[in-house]
């Protein structure tokens, strides 16, 4: 069995990742945004059973139309001119991924990975608050981006979370991550989510390990 590094390289090499031009990305991102709105509407709808059945069939027909021509792999990672990390299909902030929370990560000149975002009810755990696993996923991504921006990317080997207070949804949040230190193949990164009152809701520390093989 080969290691994670070789496996990832193989996937990347096998991907004839048609570089989408800006226009194509914008068009698909708009589609993904409409699907996000659809997702939220599904959770909130009170329309009757007949209408639900009719909409179900319409959605199935749209899925069939989109599937008429499929890429084998989703489009590749890139970094925008403004430092914005563009992993187009990422489950965190991927503009082409309709289940991704809208978390656009920008790497600042001092290496801090930062995002400002608002989470809706789709990401709810306890009533009124963000699901802890969603916070963990967002922080893992931010931590990983900070490690990559430091020139020391890796796989998450450890992720420690401290949930200090509930993270509210429906209000602006900030998350940031910064590399603390590196030791050989290990990179240690700190991150947090900050609520609208400026108080930290979740803290995280992670260790990333660059796979050898
Ligand atoms: C700029 C472009 C931007 C692109 C941005 C994209 C950003 C994307 C962001 C995505 C973000 C999301 C990211 C994701 O979602 S990553 C997905 C979640 N993570 C994984 O699936 C990782 C799975 N594990 C592995 O692949 C391997 O185990 C790794 C690679 C981690 C290590 O396997 P490897 O065979 O290479 O390592 P080694 O065994 O020789 O050990 C080496 C050293 O490390 C120490 N160690 C290892 N593991 C642990 C552990 N768990 N706790 C404590 N220590 C551990 C070990 O003791 C040793 O230390 P020492 O004895 O030398 O002192």
Automatic annotation (TrEMBL):
<keyword id="KW-0276">Fatty acid metabolism</keyword>
<keyword id="KW-0963">Cytoplasm</keyword>
<dbReference type="GO" id="GO:0016787">
    <property type="term" value="F:hydrolase activity"/>
</dbReference>
<dbReference type="InterPro" id="IPR006683">
    <property type="entry name" value="Thioestr_dom"/>
</dbReference>
<keyword id="KW-0966">Cell projection</keyword>
<dbReference type="GO" id="GO:0006631">
    <property type="term" value="P:fatty acid metabolic process"/>
</dbReference>
<dbReference type="GO" id="GO:0005737">
    <property type="term" value="C:cytoplasm"/>
</dbReference>
<dbReference type="GO" id="GO:0016020">
    <property type="term" value="C:membrane"/>
</dbReference>
<keyword id="KW-1003">Cell membrane</keyword>
<dbReference type="InterPro" id="IPR052365">
    <property type="entry name" value="THEM4/THEM5_acyl-CoA_thioest"/>
</dbReference>
<keyword id="KW-0809">Transit peptide</keyword>
<keyword id="KW-0472">Membrane</keyword>
<feature type="domain" description="Thioesterase">
    <location>
        <begin position="128"/>
        <end position="200"/>
    </location>
</feature>
<keyword id="KW-0378">Hydrolase</keyword>
<protein>
    <recommendedName>
        <fullName>Acyl-coenzyme A thioesterase THEM4</fullName>
        <ecNumber>3.1.2.2</ecNumber>
    </recommendedName>
</protein>
<dbReference type="Pfam" id="PF03061">
    <property type="entry name" value="4HBT"/>
</dbReference>
<keyword id="KW-0053">Apoptosis</keyword>
<keyword id="KW-0443">Lipid metabolism</keyword>
<dbReference type="InterPro" id="IPR029069">
    <property type="entry name" value="HotDog_dom_sf"/>
</dbReference>
<comment type="similarity">
    <text>Belongs to the THEM4/THEM5 thioesterase family.</text>
</comment>
């Amino acid at each position: 069995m080969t290691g994670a590094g070789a496996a990832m390289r193989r996937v990347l090499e096998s991907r004839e990742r048609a570089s989408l031009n800006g226009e194509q990305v914008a068009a698909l991102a708009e589609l993904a945004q409409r699907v996000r709105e659809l997702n939220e509407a599904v959770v909130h709808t009170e329309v009757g059973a007949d209408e639900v059945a009719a909409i179900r069939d319409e959605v199935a027909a749209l899925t069939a139309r989109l599937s008429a021509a499929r890429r084998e792999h989703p489009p590749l990672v890139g970094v925008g001119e403004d430092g914005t990390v563009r992993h187009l299909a990422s489950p965190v902030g991927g503009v082409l991924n309709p289940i991704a929370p809208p978390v656009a990560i920008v790497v600042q000149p001092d290496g801090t990975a930062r995002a400002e975002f608002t989470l809706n009810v789709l990401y709810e755990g306890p009533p009124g608050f963000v699901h802890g696993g969603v916070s963990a996923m967002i922080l893992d991504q931010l931590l990983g981006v900070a490690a990559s921006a430091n020139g020391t990317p890796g796989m998450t080997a450890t992720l420690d979370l401290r949930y200090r207070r509930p993270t509210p949804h429906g209000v602006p949040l900030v998350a940031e991550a910064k590399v603390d230190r590196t030791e050989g193949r290990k990179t240690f990164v700190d991150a947090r989510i900050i609520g609208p009152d400026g108080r930290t809701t979740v803290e995280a520390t992670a260790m990333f390990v660059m796979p050898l093989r």
